[in-house]
Amino acid sequence: MMMDGEKKICAVCGKVFTPKELRSLFEEAGEWLAAELWNDAGSLCPLCLENRAKLAMMYVIDR
Is the pTM here over 0.90, yes or no? Predict the structure, then answer.
């Protein structure tokens, strides 16, 4: 995740956010999923990262 303080618009919800240090395990997991599965790392706000990780735990099935 970029740490330069530049404001971005979340690719999922459209909220303006500033990338910063990850704060929760769910944010970290969401960022990993963004990089490894969906190729949109750095473009999601912290809430969308958390939600993605929580939903993936419930619904993503190993291939």
Answer: no
* Sequence letter at residue 36: E
Compute φ and ψ for 16, nearest 5 degrees: -80, 130
Tokens of residue 9, six digits: 């618009």
- Strand pairing of 8-9 and 16-17? antiparallel
- Report the distance separating Cα 34 and Cα 53, nearest Å: 9
The type of residue at 52 is R
Residue 19 burial (CB count, 10 A): 19
7 residue type, one letter: K
d(CA 40, CA 33): 9
The proportion of the chain whose per-residue pLDDT surpasses 90, expressed as a percent, equals 76
